[in-house]
């Protein structure tokens, strides 16, 4: 087995093992609780459809109705792994069984990153690129939940990689047609995972068109110094034709909800997201509420959440890519593939710029521009390799290794330090969790942090106590109970008025819920809580007699 494949498979296995080992401590987020239920329903459809094929459309309407505002591919995968690992083999709980599908796609992302990193910058590039992605605490957290954000990131990266190989002079084992067909199928899977995949073909077309303007560059050589023979060419993008033909076919084929009433349901799906109204400026924090910061929101949040040393590598990679284009235009970089540079630049910047658009809803977290992160990792890895070569050409590998260690060691410590509270991770520029709290930034997202107080609730809650989980959904509470992580005698309350115990999680736009709890319970003193660097993320309040 060659080095390229060994590095890629090694990374895939490492991510899969790390995800499985660290997942049990990660809580269930709002989105995940819905997707776990939907995935289970979708898995039941396939079993029922095989037994009663004459009723397939009726079954599709019933089983795919849950969460039909999002496509079914990733959730179907979650349901498949849950069926195999939980329902059949009994090896895991239903949540961990569902998450295994997400872990597989995370491992796939690591493999593609390693392959592309190797193509761009040799063995060191292949080894470093996945590390730069997964050593970002929020990215690492997204490896775990059975949600849509990391899966669509993996599929978008793979689609772009297949597009790149289809337009390159060196294509490996697949022909141009093979890579084009692969890109079409992968785009279909991405479309069938999340709607932001619709933006990918225009970005690829723009990158190809920009690559056709070569300035005074006479020819294209290797994609980068030290590459392994992959040449960045400028062939006609047949992959875009394949995407137009195969993408919609894969979307419909993998989403039985569209098997009849197809056009009206596609219109309803797209219309739901076009009309989505969610502009909670409280997400932004004190620092970001005044103009022009709301427009800069994704750029600023990225700068405050990516570990500082990795951020420097990524910014350096962006600068290097821009410099390579300028040098090639001036005739000083004949080895540069301009189409490759434009593809990497646009793929790195467009997802962030899209969320910065003033009319786009600003949600919490970094998940909506996560598709930019693998490309920033690729650019950062290449920048580190290039720096190592220039600092000491005779010992380039050793110097690059030292640079990678300096970039990754603090980030790896942050990953371990904040786990399982990945959504509460802020970097050195923000001052960590305490500094971000002082700035008024969001302390955590989506209700997963409540998992930290469940052991105390199980021990101290009075029998039959009514618990208001606030940001944690009732679905998540029932999933905790079915997986044995929450006592089954506890019931879910709808508010502080009918609750004995209130689990408050710090979320800016829901601060009124804490005040309601204080008023109803007549106390501001929590009975327990969860903290990160002394910053409260979760606090639990109880009526007299409800906490033993």
Q: How would a textbook summarize the main sheet?
A: 5 strands, mixed
The count of domains is: 2
**Helix-strand pattern:** HHHHHHHHHHHHHHHHHHEHEEHEE
Q: Which percent bin holds the helix content? A: 55-70%
Distance between the termini: 60 Å
- The proportion of strand residues reads under 5%
Ranges where pLDDT stays below 50 over 5 or more residues in a row are 218-232, 279-284
Quaternary state of this entry equals single chain
Rg, rounded, reads 24 Å
Query: Structural class, please?
Result: mainly alpha
User: How would you describe the shape?
Assistant: globular
Number of DSSP-assigned strands: 5
How much is the average pLDDT?
Answer: 90
How do the strands line up in the largest sheet? Answer: 2-1-3-5-4
Helices, strands, pairings?
Layout: H1 3-22, H2 30-51, H3 56-63, H4 73-88, H5 94-134, H6 137-142, H7 149-166, H8 176-191, H9 200-211, H10 238-253, H11 262-274, H12 293-305, H13 308-329, H14 338-356, H15 373-391, H16 396-418, H17 432-438, H18 454-460, E1 466-468, H19 474-482, E2 491-492, E3 501-505, H20 511-521, E4 528-532, E5 535-542
Parallel strand pairs: 1-2, 1-3
Antiparallel strand pairs: 3-5, 4-5
Helix pairs in contact: 1-5, 2-3, 2-4, 4-5, 5-7, 5-15, 5-16, 7-8, 8-10, 9-14, 12-14, 13-14, 13-15, 13-16, 14-15, 15-16
């Amino acid at each position: 087995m060659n080095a390229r494949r060994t590095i890629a498979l090694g990374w895939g296995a490492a991510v899969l093992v790390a995800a499985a080992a660290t997942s049990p401590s990660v809580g269930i987020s709002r989105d995940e609780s819905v997707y776990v239920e939907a995935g289970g329903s979708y898995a039941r459809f396939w079993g029922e459809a095989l037994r009663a094929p004459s009723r397939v459309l009726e079954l599709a309407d019933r089983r795919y109705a849950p969460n039909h505002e999002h496509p079914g591919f990733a959730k179907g995968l979650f349901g498949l792994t849950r069926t195999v690992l939980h329902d059949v083999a009994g090896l895991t709980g239903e949540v961990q069984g569902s998450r295994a599908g997400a872990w597989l796609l995370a491992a796939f992302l690591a493999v593609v990153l390693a392959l592309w990193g190797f193509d761009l910058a040799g063995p060191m590039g292949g080894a470093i690129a996945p590390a730069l992605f997964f050593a970002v605490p929020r990215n690492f957290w997204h490896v775990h939940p059975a949600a849509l954000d990391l899966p669509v990131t993996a599929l978008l990266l793979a689609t772009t990689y297949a597009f790149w190989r289809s337009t390159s002079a060196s294509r490996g084992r697949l022909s141009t047609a093979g890579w084009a067909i692969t890109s079409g199928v992968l785009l279909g899977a991405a479309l069938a995972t999340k709607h932001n995949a619709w933006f990918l073909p225009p970005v690829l077309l723009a990158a190809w068109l920009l690559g056709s303007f070569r300035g005074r560059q006479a020819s294209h050589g290797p994609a980068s110094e030290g590459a392994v023979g992959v040449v960045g060419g400028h062939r006609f993008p047949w992959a875009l034709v394949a995407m137009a033909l195969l993408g919609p076919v894969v979307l419909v084929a993998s989403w039985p909800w569209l098997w009849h009433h197809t056009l009206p349901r596609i219109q309803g799906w797209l219309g739901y997201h076009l009309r989505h109204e969610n502009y909670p400026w409280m997400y932004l924090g004190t620092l970001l509420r005044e103009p022009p910061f709301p427009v800069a929101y994704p750029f600023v949040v990225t700068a405050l959440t990516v570990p500082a040393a990795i951020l420097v590598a990524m910014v350096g990679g962006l600068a290097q890519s821009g410099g390579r284009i300028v040098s090639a235009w001036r005739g000083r970089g004949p080895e540069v593939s301009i189409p490759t540079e434009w593809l990497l630049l646009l793929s790195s910047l467009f997802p962030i710029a899209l969320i910065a658009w003033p009319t786009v809803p600003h949600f919490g977290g970094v998940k909506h521009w996560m598709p930019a992160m693998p490309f920033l990792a690729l650019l950062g890895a290449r920048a580190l390799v290039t720096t190592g070569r220039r600092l000491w050409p005779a010992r380039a590998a050793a110097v690059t290794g030292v640079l990678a260690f300096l970039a990754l060691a603090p980030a790896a410590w942050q990953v371990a330090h904040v786990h399982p509270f990945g959504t509460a991770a802020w970097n050195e520029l923000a001052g960590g969790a305490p500094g971000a709290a002082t700035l008024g930034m969001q302390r955590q997202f989506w209700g997963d942090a409540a998992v930290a107080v469940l052991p105390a609730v199980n021990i101290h809650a009075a029998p039959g106590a009514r618990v208001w989980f606030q940001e944690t959904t009732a679905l998540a509470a029932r999933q905790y109970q079915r997986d044995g992580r929450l006592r089954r005698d506890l019931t879910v309350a709808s508010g502080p008025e009918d609750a004995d115990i209130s689990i408050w999680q710090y979320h800016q736009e829901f601060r009124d819920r804490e005040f309601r709890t204080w008023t109803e319970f007549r106390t501001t003193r929590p009975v327990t809580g969860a903290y990160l660097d002394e910053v409260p993320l979760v606090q639990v309040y109880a009526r007299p007699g409800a906490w033993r």
